[in-house]
Amino acid sequence: MNTPSGTTARLAGFAAVAVAVFAVALLVGRAIGPVDEPEAEPVHDTHGERISLEPAPAAEEIPGGLMTSQNGYTLALTENRADAGSAVPVRFAIIGPDGAPVTSYDVQHDKQLHLIAVRRDFSGFQHVHPTLAEGVWGVDLALTPGTWRLFADFKATDGPALTLGTDLEVRGGYQPVPPAEESRTATVGGYQVTLDGDLAAGADAKLTLRVSKDGEPVTDLQPYLGAYGHLVALRSGDLAYLHVHPDGEPGDGTTQPGPDVVFHTSVPSAGTYHLYLDFQHDGVVRTAAFTVTAGDAAGGTAEGTAGGSGHGEKHGEGSEHGH
User: Fold this and answer.
1) Using omega within 30 degrees of 0 as the cis cutoff, is the peptide bond preceding 259 cis?
2) How, if at all, do strands 204-213 and 50-51 pair?
3) CA distance 220 to 314
């Protein structure tokens, strides 16, 4: 078990190493000097006169969760290996641009930080909210053997909103699972959730998730994280984390508490995506899981993926927990 002093020492050591590496890189860069960029070939019109070049287009925005460090912030685990178990303690810090653990955060979706834990084969998913003590976040997770991707979704006070990701290796006998098939209907804890809407690369998508129980629509969903549902979307392969925005909010006079929960998102590429809906009813938060295929902007499907975006009949797996 890590003591507070031991954890602080680990974080201080991490920060010192990061600063040292940065300093060495800076000195090497100064010694070598800047690398010359090849000069762009001037463009001429039909009269042989030079004309100005248009500036290069900005690089495409990188999806969240692919980087451990971004904009001066780093997600640092105190331990990057753990034993499997139903309540595995996980401790981490967000190291800021000054090399010290961040201690002040803005509240987003009712929480200062959201932690998403996903096994890399998508056989496990958890959305939890750690507690903060002296710059160190802590939470217990139910972890099976294998590689888990941890996503920290947060906004440090006076800093940018970020989603950073890192891997946690969980010891034990790893049991791989086959890739998930297309699924737009999930059953969890006696509830049925259906997904309607299509994803296409580079296009805005409206996703409607309908919640029912025993064949009857649920019309009294309870607010969870400032909405009647919270949706996480992850790209298969690299587990790019995509932000999904709910339509409306409880108490705005127009958004109904079910059975439909509406979200808007855009995916950067064609391929397979895994979606996880958290919703609350009767004081319990449940998670419904889906797997969908995004086509290209013209409506085609990605090569090598399940064809079409039709409504599959295979039921997704879900989970539930008290709130």
Assistant:
1) yes
2) unpaired
3) 27
CB 283 within 8 A of CB 265: no
Element (H, E) at 6: helix 4-32
Check: CB of residue 293 under 8 Å from CB of residue 259.
Answer: no
The whole-angstrom distance between residue 126's C-alpha and the CA centroid of its chain comes to 11
Q: 189 and 249: one domain? A: yes
Domain assignment of residue 239, yes or no: yes
Query: Is 56 part of any domain?
Result: no
Is residue 223 within 8 Å of residue 250, measured between CB atoms?
yes
Among residues 138, 171, 204, the one where a domain terminates is 171
Report the number of distinct structural domains present in the chain. Answer: 2
> Does 306 lie in the same domain as 272?
yes
- Token pair of 306, please? 């399940």
**CB 185 within 8 Å of CB 313:** yes
Q: What are the 10-residue block averages of pLDDT along the chain, 323 residues in total?
A: 49 47 36 41 42 42 92 98 98 98 97 98 97 98 98 98 98 92 96 97 96 97 96 97 92 96 95 98 98 81 38 44 48
Could you list the residue range(s) of the whole structural domain that residue 286 is in?
A: 185-322
Contact at 8 Å (CB) between 149 and 136? no
Do 44 and 50 contact (CB within 8 A), yes or no? yes
Give yes or no: residues 202 and 146 share one domain: no
DSSP letter for each residue of 51-70? EPPPPPPPPPPPPBTS-SEE
Q: Tell me how far apart the alpha carbons of residues 47 and 50 are, in angstroms, rounded to a whole number.
A: 9
CA distances from 215 to 186, 269, 313 (A): 13, 35, 16
CA 93 to chain centre: 17
Q: Are residues 190 and 310 located together in one domain of the fold? A: yes
15 belongs to a structural domain: no
Contact 193, 221 (CB under 8 A): no
